Amino acid sequence: MAEPWGNELASAAARGDLEQLTSLLQNNVNVNAQNGFGRTALQV
Fold it and tell me: For the whole model, what pTM was predicted?
């Protein structure tokens, strides 16, 4: 199931946006959140 932060986290990972990734992780987003395609940030 896709989660609200899943798309943002996966998108930042795909772009290599370290600033955005750091910000999201510091705000304790679920690193296992899935994007609309069912993939986690690690999988993109």
Answer: 0.78
